[in-house]
Fold each of these.
Amino acid sequence: MRDTRESRLLLVLLIAIAFALITVDIRAGEESPVDGARQAAAAVFGPVEKGVATAVDPVANAIGAVRDSGERHSRIAVLERENAALKAKLGSEDQARSRIRELDEMLKRAGAGQYGIKGAEVIAIGAAQGFSWTVTIDAGSKDGIERDMTVINGDGLVGRVATVGPDTATVVLANDPDFTVGTRLEKTGELGFATGQGDRALSVQMLNGKAKISAGDRLVTFGSRGNKPFVPGVPLGEVVKVDPARGDLTRTVWVRPFVGFSRLDIVGVVVMPPREDPRDAVLPPKPQAVPTPTVTVTVTPSPSASAGASAGPADE
């Protein structure tokens, strides 16, 4: 059919008649004037519809199966969410146990050094206030935190408080290149100054260039006047390398810090210094070396070998 003005008018008229018949059919119900025409159409097209329905039944069954499958998938999704929630709960319990261990170790260190501490959680890490290695803790001036207080954890020296807000504080870490702390060598008491080196070992300048130092020796903080910014006796690290002595007045050693600065979580701010220097009391006992068993093998000649050796010359 050509698209003309008359054809468009005819289409509109047919649509209007169709809507009118539908309206009449709905309002009349069972007494609808088009009921006869509908029955005649059913008689003509019924077999065709039945055949089509028979052919489409597998598809309908498949749709039902897909619908049921969707319900099963929904149930599986619910179960997966429940499993994920359970795993998260177990994970949180593991984290809680880990944090309890951290807190326990920190309290042991604080008790050994007689430090009064305020516990805090590390809530952010990154550059702040111009420092390279810092963390933010969730304790501030409202909790009695002040600038230049020592910060520790269960392993040893974390750093010092640099800036304080009402609810948070910024801690500059001991591995910061601008960080310097006085040190004392375990047992001998040799003094030095440790400087942060980022992710490398701390550099410690020993004041005595002839001091006898070996790998494995441990250092603690020497302490500051008025116990700010550092209280004495906090474990710092273990010597991993000693530069050769060259007759200089000072000597450099390299110290691996006890604290893992990339995994800080629970820390303690020393709000009350010790009454006296704990010296090496905060350091944990060194593990005892296990002696290597010595195996002695004794070789005993067999009787047959001895007889053969003695009979040899007689045969000649």
Amino acid sequence: MVKIGNIEVGEFPLLLAPMEDVSDPPFRAACKQNGADVMYTEFIAAEGLIRDAHKSVQKLDIYDYERPIGIQIFGANIESMRLAADIVERTQPEILDINYGCPVKKVACKGAGAGILQDLPKMQKMTEEIVKRVKLPVTVKTRLGWDDSSIKIMEVAKRLQDVGIKALSIHGRTRKQMYKGEANWEPIAEVKNNPDIHIPIFGNGDIDTPEKALEYKNRYGVDGIMIGRAAIGYPWIFNEIKHYMATGKKLAPPTLEQRVAVCHQHLVHSVEWKGEKQGVFEMRRHYTNYFRGFHGFKPFRTRLVEAGSPQEVIDILGEVGVHYANKVLV
């Protein structure tokens, strides 16, 4: 049984990656219902939390059905991160996660996210201060390094374990790669299989099928897998991986009715949490994946993206259900 601190998370946990503008409560609800074991919030700016900025504070919303859940924070200033950790602890998640992996310019080039990979002593000091500050188990998500010439993930893992983190998630790319190219899991395996590493090591990057999940589990020996982009609009991937690992057989893909129903539910939760305008707008990124494989779906997708109200979206989803009811997906 894998544990993060004293929290049991399963024999081989599947984690939902923290994704900006994606891993919100409506999306997390769909993933939890479909097999995700541990979830993380979108990353939250420490400076926003301590200034009580609405957008940052709203991301603290967590619900009992999501547990165990981690709240992820990022920042470049140690004191701000310490104060933000206090706010997170009062919210009472199971886990506090630190983002040392975000590659986007506005974050990394200010010394936060993956930017701190260029200053490992500061990374270690910041992490130590947060671990001392809270009673929650602290975890970290990071990348292999800043670029191919500075891959120091083993040193990172040892430094962070030494100051008390309880698990480490590693994305198999450098900051310079962003999300391009193929994720390299070899350094992740080296960390996991190092006899000096005793905390759980979770691998992240390019897991988009049950077959690949099982292959990477066996090949690299990680304690669990974190799934990000492959879950967008397709929360069924978690149960599909679990079923394949348990039986060696693939689950049938979700039916038309299931896709329409989960998409509908996601929309309703999105509107409830964000309000009508924002809830409808932020659902747009999910439609392509919800209905991937539906031949001739593009006109429906265009209408869904252009829809201005929840009822309009619901009506179009109803049309999708009728249109494809007797058709074979390709």
Amino acid sequence: MSMSLPTPSTAAGRDGLRALLADPGRAVIGLDFDGTLAPIVADPEQARAHPEAVAALAALAPKVASVAVITGRPAEVAVRYGGFADVPGLEHLTVLGHYGAERWDAATGKVTAPEPHPGVAAVRAALPSLLDGTGAWIEEKGGRAVAVHTRRAPDPQATFDTLRAPLTALATEHGLIVEPGRLVLELRPPGMDKGVALLAHVHDLSAASVLYAGDDLGDLPAFTAVDALRTTGTPGLLVCSGSDEVPELSNRADLVVKGPEGVVALLSTLVEHLG
């Protein structure tokens, strides 16, 4: 017996789901990685895709124009932690890493990327002294960005709030921006975000509909991109991988599901309805 699809809470979301179901071969499915396909963990190096995620994606990908995982992580890291390489059925999967600065296509297994921004190395060199004694720690992002996590600090939120201004000043000095997230501050080059990456991908494929699922502040630009597409005649569905931590996202979503488990269930149910 096939599961029934959840009903989006907005008219625009219902239109988006209807368009996707009517012409799946021209639909783009955009998905964040951490918090959406992979549960959030204290150590991001231990993050792995939900156990049923790859099977759901492999079943869905052949039925749509593209499944695009759009992440702040390096593309190769997301591929490894997701288990996306050499999976039958995932030939239509693309990973847009570093907010679209890097691209990995399952069909070729290759990563394409421009040269890293020189400000990233300069910021990385300055961070240890700035963070000394705070309990915050640094996550390397392949020379293209650097993230400061406060989840393991004695008072994670207070440490996050205290570090935000000095990290913003440091980033600005080296031509970078700060992207805040769930107890993480990422310093990265300007000009690329998940919205820019999603719009380019949708336009490249001349997609007729789009679904985007995310869980954090870094996904807001992708939500805004889907809103823009909807106003110009491309229906879309916005899904929040539910978290009480980011009401800015859940308040704008057409559909809120229960974390990665809920996202995987939604994708699996979509597959059943696409026949």
Amino acid sequence: MRMSVLDVGSNTVRLMVADTGNGVPLPVHTEKWKLRLSEQVESGGVIPEESVRQLVKAVALAAETAQRWGAGGPLAFATAVVRSAPNRLDVLRSVRTETGVRLCTLPGEVEAELTFLGARRWMGWRVGSIALFDIGGGSLEVAFGRGRLPDFAASLPLGAGRLTREFLDGEDPPSEEDLRALRRRVRHQMRDVAARLRWEGPQVAVATSRTFQQLARLCGAPPGRQGVFVPRQLTRGDLRGCVPRLAALPAAERAMLPGVSAPRALQSLAGAVVGHTAMKLTGIKTLTICPWAIREGVLLRCVEDGGAWWADIAQKRDEAAPVGPTSLRIATPKA
């Protein structure tokens, strides 16, 4: 069986077409469109009309690509940048009217749950209990669990793009005062989740997302061209040394460092601060970088629980979703 999943993130729209007949999502084609929605949002988080038109065009191209690869309509979802937008209903309505694709927004804790499922399947049962971290553009997802789905999942407004706009959008490189303010925000937001993870004592800690992948590369992990099966880790000590290194450079020079792409150079410092603070507060010394994340989690959940699971999510009225960031949302998913 061939399926496709479409992920509308803060920076990029990503399509993955995969064969799932054996219960494992094996990619056959991937494609991405760099829209950088988070950089275009207006005051209050409103997504402007021109950005909506760009999104509609990207979704239409993704749907055509999925059809061409024999996958049918994609399972399409949007993360924090659309979820938090006051005009998100207009955005979702425009996408569906113009493309026929039902784009839905997922609550942050559901993102964490699905990312955890992808990481669990990649890591296997032998690793025991897992703590998961995923830094996106708008939010940080955290989860912990011993089984297939997490025992708890949390979403925090600590995305690398969001924090860059709030704290590091002045001097380049930023002032020490701005960095201290950023660290205070991360410590405050992480306090409750960190206490829970310390109490749980996970046997292994896993990180997903492009932010963690690039930080691991900056700290010496093998490059992506060596393939997904090469082990990659990120230690707290290495990341601690990475923060002042990034802070001393303007964004243009960060882009010259190994692993730091030009589009993410500006937010790389905020991502490093979030990652290091999260590891320090939770007592975690090493993160294993996992190539499977939310897109694989969506496909796995549909394969294992049936298509009705996704249909139920996609058909729920989005009016119930909260507008703007919340300080902490924790959910205990049902099996």
